[in-house]
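Support reply, case 0932

Customer input (verbatim):
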Amino acid sequence: MGLQQTLKALADPIRREILNMLKNGRMSAGEITEHFPVTAASISRHLSVLKDADLIRDTREGKFIFYEINTSVLEETLLWISDLKGADDHAEKQ
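Our regenerated output:
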């Protein structure tokens, strides 16, 4: 997935909070929805954006879909940001 799609997904505070919740382990869509004052359809859309950006993965178990965080995309994004920071540090020293 592209960096632009990742940054777009991270731009929304609800999506960032979903990721924050998932860092503690997988959750069902219903469990995630309970934490927000928005409709289940809205949370479903947020989950879809996160999934399209490859920031989360889903697994179906019977009638339930469980979501978990995909840290590899976050690690790639952090490396990119760290590389930018390094470039700025080098420019300041000259």
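We compared this against your earlier run and they match. Two observations from our side: The chain has one domain: 3-93. The beta strands are 27-28, 56-61, 64-69. Please reopen the case if you see a mismatch on your end.
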